[in-house]
Design a protein that fits this description.
Shape: elongated
Helix content: 25-40%
Distance between the termini: 47 Å
Largest sheet: 5 strands, antiparallel
Number of strands: 9
Number of helices: 4
Structural class: alpha+beta
Radius of gyration: 22 Å
Strand content: 35-45%
Length: 183
């Protein structure tokens, strides 16, 4: 019996979305020369943008590194990226931390601000409110160190613009899934 509005196909077609979403991917790879270039080459060769990238050795004895990549795409594109990453030889595991639920995400930023008078006082007040640490101070400028979510750092940088922002250096996102499950 066919009901009006239902497809006559015996195959289930997954509903597709064309809305781009930001996803954080954690990729466990062999720590050897050229691996990062191969992973990044996958993104650039297919025209995928990388919004944030961090890499570090995580298991010295096993020579394993974690690459944390923040990228944007439709759900189909994200699935395609994960599948293509998983097929690279030095890749051991690819996890979409965004799909796993709320991950612990942190980024470090160094923020240089130059100013005098009220701007200088306001910069110190804002740094204290954001719990930023002063790592350098001269009569003309400050360098603040701030660790937090990317949104927290964005807010701090935007506020410091009014106080005499000179430059910003950011590490990129470091992220882990919540709970007892590991990579």
């Amino acid at each position: 019996m066919i009901v009006a509005g239902q497809s006559q196909s015996a195959y289930f077609l997954e509903e597709t979305s064309t809305v781009a979403e930001t996803h954080t991917l954690s990729v466990l790879v062999d720590n050897e020369p050229g691996v990062l270039a191969r992973v990044i080459g996958l993104f650039s060769g297919r025209g995928y943008n990388i919004e944030s990238l961090t890499v570090s050795e995580v298991e010295h004895e096993k020579h394993l590194s974690r690459i944390t990549v923040v990228t944007t795409g439709t759900p189909q594109v994200i699935t395609q990226i994960m599948n293509q990453l998983g097929r690279l030889v030095p890749v051991h595991r690819v996890v979409n931390l965004t799909k796993m639920g709320e991950a612990i995400e942190r980024e470090l930023a160094l923020v240089k601000v130059a100013g005098k008078g009220e701007h200088r006082v306001e910069a110190l007040r804002l740094a204290q409110a954001f719990e930023a640490r002063t790592v350098d101070a001269t009569l003309e400028s400050f360098v603040f160190e701030l660790t937090g979510t990317p949104a927290d750092i964005d807010r701090f940088v935007n506020l410091m613009t009014e106080c005499g922002l000179v430059e910003v250096a950011r590490t990129g996102l470091a992220a882990l899934a919540r709970g007892k499950m590991g990579m």
